[in-house]
């Protein structure tokens, strides 16, 4: 079940990213991100009342808050990198960094010992995720944008670091923590985003339609973290993080099904490799 929970987490995160990206085209991405975290907090609080039987533990709450700081940082740098027009650099670099750091930390610091089959799956997942997220770089970058690639790469690395912090900190919460760390994480993410909004000219306003969509997007992302925590109870951190990090493949599939976008050759190979990686990790 751990593999299934991790894949459901990736599915929820992918849907959240896809819808959030569409909403960011119609409104300010910072406002969308902030409202999304508020929506995620509402879902997490509801989950606490309906699912949690354990009292709030200060240590677990602190790990959840640290995870939320990673969420806020990851979103800010990811969106800033994309705003610089280098999506083909930001998405794969941030995704791979978000995988690589938890895997290294899991092995060196947390005592994870993946089987040879799991290592093979991890090795296949890295190029798979790169190809799926990168797609056809020539179609996404114009020569005039090459000056932005270095700053965008830095943003991508920082975003990946935030994503890695989110996953690693949440993994440190106790097995009996239930959903409290997800709730405290949404509070921390809001605390990270509020000063940025106050310093920007975006304000906090959004149209009712965009606000409702952003709130639902944030709820879906919070649901992804709930499934991630469930997966951690049955799988080691390294395997859970890799499987949960296949979320960039979901916007690609939805883009084809909903927006009638075409799958590039690189993305097609990436999807095939991702399927192989999932199979190796599932049977490891």
General description of the model:
The protein is mostly helical. The chain has one domain. It has twelve helices and no strands. It has helices at residues 2-26, 29-51, 58-83, 87-108, 116-134, 137-140, 149-171, 180-199, 208-232, 237-244, 249-258, 265-282. Helix 2 (29-51) packs across helix 9. The longest helix has 26 residues, at 58-83.
Secondary structure layout plus pairing:
Elements: H1 2-26, H2 29-51, H3 58-83, H4 87-108, H5 116-134, H6 137-140, H7 149-171, H8 180-199, H9 208-232, H10 237-244, H11 249-258, H12 265-282
Helix pairs in contact: 1-2, 1-9, 1-10, 1-11, 2-8, 2-9, 3-4, 3-7, 3-8, 4-5, 4-7, 4-10, 5-12
Protein name: Multidrug DMT transporter permease
Domain EamA: 1-133
Family: Belongs to the EamA transporter family.
């Amino acid at each position: 079940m751990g593999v299934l929970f991790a894949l459901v987490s990736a599915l929820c995160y992918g849907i959240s990213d896809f819808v959030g990206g569409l909403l960011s085209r119609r409104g300010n991405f910072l406002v969308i991100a902030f409202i999304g975290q508020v929506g995620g907090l509402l879902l997490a609080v509801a989950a606490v009342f309906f699912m949690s039987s354990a009292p709030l533990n200060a240590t677990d709450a602190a790990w959840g808050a640290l995870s939320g700081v990673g969420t806020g940082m990851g979103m800010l740098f990811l969106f800033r990198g994309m705003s610089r027009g280098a999506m083909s650099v930001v998405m794969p670099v941030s995704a791979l960094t978000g995988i690589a750091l938890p895997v290294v930390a899991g092995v060196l610091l947390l005592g994870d010992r993946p089987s040879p089959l799991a290592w093979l799956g991890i090795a296949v997942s890295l190029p798979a995720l790169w190809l799926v997220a990168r797609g056809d770089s020539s179609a996404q970058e114009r020569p005039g944008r090459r000056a932005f690639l270095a700053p965008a790469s830095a943003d991508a690395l920082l975003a990946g670091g935030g994503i890695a912090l989110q996953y690693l900190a949440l993994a440190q919460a106790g097995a009996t923590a239930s959903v409290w760390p997800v709730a405290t994480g949404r509070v921390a993410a809001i605390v990270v985003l509020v000063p940025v909004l106050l310093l920007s000219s975006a304000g906090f306003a959004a149209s009712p339609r965009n606000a409702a969509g952003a709130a639902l997007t944030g709820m879906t992302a919070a649901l992804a973290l709930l499934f991630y925590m469930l997966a951690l109870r049955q799988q080691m951190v390294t395997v859970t993080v890799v499987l949960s990090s296949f979320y960039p493949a979901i916007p690609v599939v939805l883009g084809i099904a909903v927006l009638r976008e075409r799958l590039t050759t690189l993305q097609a190979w990436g999807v095939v490799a991702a399927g192989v990686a999932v199979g190796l990790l599932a049977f490891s």
